[in-house]
Here is the input.
Amino acid sequence: MSLKFLLILPILEIITFILFGDFFGFFPALFMILITGFFGLFLLKSNINIDEVKEIASQPEKWMYKKLAGVLLIIPGFVTDILGLILLIKSFRMIVWDFFPDDLKNKVYSKEKKNSE
Here is the structure.
């Protein structure tokens, strides 16, 4: 599933750019992509202090989703921007989690079980 998505992603990005460019215009569409790229860079910026280290240690998945959203926002295109924005909204994260392969989910859950025991 994920390999097929990675192969189709560039085609989807081109199609959505053409559609958004047709709807909003070329320069506004390009401007939106640049703005989300700068926002992604802001999310990836790492000025970590002691309080943030404690927060990361207690909730590593929140930090992981934030960094993954930053990477997706840096990649130029509307599909990856939408996925990045979905990752920033806590209630929508489970939608993205459903797209992960089952063997990866099982590995994560088995590690959580071992850590809790």
